[in-house]
Amino acid sequence: MEPQSPVTLNKPAPLSPSGETKNVQDLTIFVENLLGTLQEKFQTMSDGILSRMDEMGNRIDELEKNIGELMQQAGIEDNPIDK
Asked: Rounded to an integer, what distance in angstroms lies between the CA atom of residue 71 and that of residue 22?
């Protein structure tokens, strides 16, 4: 059994001016809701990615600090390379 799609196809609406207006309004509302949902999901994903990048930056900073301390303990000079 195939999964059912959440989108259902309805019979075409009559081509009267009031029917067309109703369909356009319904489509506009649907598209606005869809775009709003997509924007929320995109924002959530963006926030998560930025949070992970900040966390990774902090971890890299801590790693550099620990490596510097180990080099000092080992008596190796810390000569940073100019970039």
From this structure: 73
Cβ(20)–Cβ(13) below 8 Å:
yes
Q: Enter the tokens of residue 37.
A: 């949902």
The per-residue pLDDT for range 24-77, each reduced to its tens digit, is 999 999 999 999 999 999 999 999 999 999 999 999 999 999 999 999 999 886
Q: Which amino acid is at 80?
A: P
**C-alpha torsion angle, residues 37, 43, 46, 47 (rounded to 10):** -130
Q: What would the two tokens of residue 77 be?
A: 């000079």
Q: How far lies 10's CA from each of 2, 27, 35, in Å?
A: 20, 13, 22
Of the candidates 44, 10, 50, the residue with the CA atom closest to the CA atom of residue 26 = 10
Residue 83 pLDDT > 50: no
